[in-house]
Structures are given as structure tokens and as C-alpha cells.
Amino acid sequence: MAAAVEARQHGMSVLLLDEQETPGGQIYRRVTQADEDRRRILGPDYARGSDLAREFTVSGAEYWPRTAVWQVTRERRVHALRDGRVAALEARAIVLATGAMERPFPIPGWTLSGVMTAGAAQILMKSAGIVPGQAPVLAGCGPLLYLLAWQYLRAGVRIGAILDTAAPADLRAALRHASGALAGWPDLVKGLKLLSGIKRHRVPHYKGVTGLAIQGEDGCAQRIQFQADGRTRTLPASLVLLHQGVVPNTQITWSLRAGHVWDDAQLCWRPVVDGWGELDVPGIYVAGDGAAIAGARAAEIQGRLTGLGAAAAAGRLTAAQRDARAAPLVRERQSFLRIRPFLDRLYRPKDENRIPADEVMVCRCEEVTAGRLRDDVRLGCVGPNQVKSFSRCGMGPCQGRQCGLTVTELIAGTRQVPPADAGYYRIRPPIKPITLAQLAKEAEVNE
What we know:
By secondary structure, the protein is an alpha/beta fold. It is about 40% helix and about 20% strand. It has 19 helices and 21 strands. The protein has a 5-stranded parallel β-sheet with strand order 8-15-9-10-11. The radius of gyration is 22 Å and the shape is globular.
């Protein structure tokens, strides 16, 4: 939205393709339809998104809701499905705002019914006002875990427990970045207020949790086992919400064969972009968390910078005009990034929750276990594409979204090489499902 607004201010013709029904993205989902009660529950950071959505709505950009992009080519051609109908578009510049997705959390029992991600639970609350009828157990680490707990409490939901995998040693290591955290004190204060609000409700709160395992019968979660304070504990849990941070959604950038690097601080792949968000594929940009995890406010500013970069490349303003307008935006964005190293280290996901034991399912779509993948590596598979050929891991409906990072790290660990040497899946279109009839229809249109 921010990139579209900026580009429109410089006279560019802009079309925004959105999978959702209304403007708002993931963070501000359905913010234009939210009533006062839902805004109160979700908090002021959510409510402020209505200003950006309103700015976008009046910007003059064309808007296609309910539109899924299933292919983007290096020649800047976009293939999409709009309300089930095919469309093919060509553009001078393409801005990918794919955002973040939750990191896989492959632990014993994570495929049981009643286990879902914290982000998915928050989407239900934002989009339909749905909250659990039973007391959920929230497990993992990261700011979203506590934000969701705070929002649930404001909605009147009782929380069974919070199981935080971050340990005191993580806090001590994060304090090396204390100067940045203090510079980003507004976010630090917000976090402390969340923790204080949760504490007032006397929610059972365990820290330094290890050995997470969800147990149940007949395919349904019933309890969660873990170690904390030197003891093994078991809690009843028919609803478990898992979260250990978010990572860039890179499916489209991988499909473009753009350059990517392994980010050891955030333990994920990210595309290589310049200061304006442009990939090494000319004319294609990435704005927001799809380039690197930085948060909603920083993503909005990066969107404006990307809009400036695209406008300058199109000759709508000079490089000097672009740079002058960008300077205050760069400073503002930096103010939101200062706390990032502190958060990345404090909530660094544990190895045991990223790289599972042999019996744990890695690829939910094709039911491939970690042990099967390790066996394939021992047979000579050196990367994800080879294990895909051996085991079909990554060939299901999610196309590797839910297992890709796990597979990279598991192969790297088995081979005892850095994750960058293991690589990632070769992503091919369609990025989103499309029927043969729809594909044939596009061929007719092109003829």
C-alpha cells in the first residue's frame, strides 16, 4: 500500500493485486471493516493501519481484491487469478510485497488436530472475530506470542499457559545489543506493557522451556509435555498455538532465480536487494518483510522508498530528487531497526525446535520424516532438490513453504556444512494452485 501511494504521488499508473477482500495486508487485515470493539482488542498498532489503508484508497491506484498471483517472470509479466478468472499483465516495474510467514515448528505432535500457529489464530480473530472457546496453550518465542496472549485476554479468553523457549542465557546474550534496544525504547516499552498486562491476569508462565512434545489420541491434541525449572511437566491442552518467529516469504523471488543469502541472525533465506528494494532482476522490487524481517512500521517506510526507486527508474523524478525525498525516510526506518538485533538474539529459535529428531514429520503434505531425509543425505543427496526427487518432500500443496527452512538446516546439519551450502528448493510456477482449465483459458486469451 505504501509503495502504491508513493508511486501514485509521482504520476505512475499503479495496480495493486491483493489476495484479500479489502486493503490492509496481513498486519492490518480487514482494518477498514473492524468495529471499535475489535480495534480495542487488537490494540492501537492495528488501528493505525486504517490511516494507511485510507491513504491508499484515495491515492488513485487501481485495486484488484481476491486476486492470487501464480507466476511472475523475469520479463516483468504477472500471471494472476482474479475471482477465478485468468489475467496476464505486463509492467514497467513490479513490487513484490509478499510479507512474512511463520517459521516451521516441527516438534513431536505438531501435526495433531488442535495444533496451529499463533499467526493463524490471530488471522481468525482479525478477519472474523473468532476466538477459542477453550483455554489455549501458547508455546514458543517471539513478540507475536505475547501480543496474541494480550489480545486474547482483552477479548475475555482464558489462557492455559505460556511456554516460552527463550532462556535467561538468551537475555544475557541479547544484552550485548542493549544500546540498540534502548534507542528503540518505544517498542521496548510496548513489550514491557504487554508482559505486565499478562502478569496481572496470573497466566501460568514458564520460561526456558525445552523438550516440547504434544501428545494425544485419535489424532487430536490432548496435552503438552515439556521441561522447565529442572522438571518434566505435563499440561492439558486441546488447543496448542505454536510460534517461533517469522521469516520472509521468498517463494516468488526464488522462482525468479534472484540472488538469495542465508541470514544467520534471523536463521532464514532472504533475497538480495539494493537500498530501493530492487532485486538483481531489473525492474522487480521487494518491499517489506519479504526482503528481511523488520516489522510493520519499517515495512511501510521501505514501501515508500521502493515507490521512490521505481518512480526514479521510470523517469518521474531525478536521482537527486529521489535521494532528497528518501533521506528522512531512511532515518525514520533506521529508528525502527535499532531494536532488531536485540530481538533477533533474545528470541533466536532453539535448534531442537527447528531441526527435529528422526521420528518427527518434516513435510506434512507428503508425510516425510526427518529420519527419511537424513537417510537420503547419507545416500548422497546434497541439497533440497535431490531429496525432493528421492522422497517427494516439498512437492505437496504448500510447495515447500512449511518444510523448506527445516530441510535446508537438516541437510546442512547432516552434511556438517553451512546452510548456504545446502541451498533451497528450486521453486517453479504455479506459485498458487491453478486448474488445467484456467491455464488453458489463459492460453486462449494470449492467442
